[in-house]
Amino acid sequence: MGKHYEHVKGTVDFYPPQSSLFQNIVKEARNLFILYGYEEIILPILETEAVFAKGVGSTSDIVEKQIFRIQDKDIVLRPEGTAQVVRSYIENSCSKQSDVHKFFYIGPMFRGERPQKGRLRQFHHIGAEVFGVENPALDGEVIALAYMVLQKSGIKNITLKLNTLGCAQDKEKFSARLQKDLQAHHAKLCELCQKRVSVNPLRVLDCKDPSCKKIVASLSLGKGHLCDECQDHFHKVTETLKALSVPFEYDPFLVRGLDYYTNTVFEFISSALGAQDACGAGGRYNNLVKNLGGPDVPAIGFALGVERMLLLREDFKSPPVVNVFVAYTGETLASEARTLVYELRRQGVSADMSYKPKSLKSQLRVAQRLGAVCTVIFGEEERKEGCLTLRNMRESTQQKIAVEDIIPALKNKI
Length: 414
Ligand code: HAM
Hints:
Blueprint: H1 18-35, E1 39-40, E2 46-48, H2 49-55, H3 61-65, E3 68-69, E4 75-77, H4 82-91, H5 94-97, E5 101-110, E6 122-131, H6 136-152, E7 159-164, H7 168-183, H8 191-199, H9 210-218, H10 228-243, E8 249-250, E9 264-269, E10 278-284, H11 288-291, E11 299-305, H12 306-311, E12 324-328, H13 334-346, E13 351-353, H14 360-369, E14 374-378, H15 380-385, E15 387-392, E16 397-402, H16 406-413
Parallel strand pairs: 1-5, 7-8, 12-13, 12-14
Antiparallel strand pairs: 2-4, 3-4, 5-6, 6-11, 7-9, 9-10, 10-11, 14-15, 15-16
Helix pairs in contact: 1-6, 6-10
Bound molecules: histidyl-adenosine monophosphate (HAM).
Residues 80-82, 111, 113, 118-120, 123, 125, 127, 129, 278-283, 301-303, 305, 307-308 line the site of histidyl-adenosine monophosphate.
């Protein structure tokens, strides 16, 4: 036997029923995006590293630790969609065509992390990014849309955490205050956070180190750093969420590990996911378009992690692979069976049959495995009588039906 190969650690092969659930989630998301007036964009997996270094932040985990670099090039496998969508939005001069753009995207992202449950090196995002709207009603709507996608995918027990970082000036004020507060505990912070305090103190709030967590928990954070305008914006976001019946928890410790956020930030958390407990997240990034060399256009978006959504749907039962299985006895009846299979498919009824003669018993077993609702049996007895047997697989009942009535009878049953 030759050598066999294994999948790359941190990647997943999707098999049924997981693959079917994956597509189901994508289908529901796509339908909702269309309902909310979003247009799909399909962007490359390869992107220049600078887009993320400048966009997400050179001291973010994504850029500092998780980038998949193509050797000797400044090209990377995209770790997230937002900075990339912004790059594309600017490059394609979208702002000149219309003042508002609502995009969605579905595709793989890559982060070179040490894999663990829920933390992969290749995973998929269902994401949305909206450009050109300042109105806080949109923040509420975007969050509600993400919430709806999760609900429609059958994910129920999730908590929506919500916070606001304020505008760039507020964020700076917050950061400076945090820096001062954290400096008092400098010696007790982990080595990395000791550096973070001076470079990017907000990142300390995300640290998983127990000692850092304890210090962070003792801090009193609130909305003190917010200017009147940002206070009002956040208030209106919460009002919209209430009006849309989206439950949320205000969490002043939620800052997110990506530098581009301003004002609203949010995360969907489930305790069933373990340490990697976020199945989706997002927020406003009003300065990113400008920072990446584009016009001064406000924006907001979110991304849901499909693999983590799948983990929350482990109870999923896959739909039938085909609705009708056509069984036959002996090679002579194979071509008649095949004609029926082709006709059913032509009329939009999913159908299949065995490619080689097998006993009726084993064909029924295959029909069962495929989840077929009905099996049609072509046997010698049926041939003599000029009819077919229609077996209802769920009820284990069967009846004889005239050949010409079989398709309407099947359509009636499925
Ligand atoms: P993010 O929080 O880095 O945000 O990723 C969003 C979601 O992707 C996470 O909540 C998680 O479900 C999933 N995810 C992230 N990393 C992994 C991983 N290594 N393995 C499996 N799943 C993962 C963003 O990427 C932002 N672009 C979201 C956004 C869009 N903000 C504004 N617009």
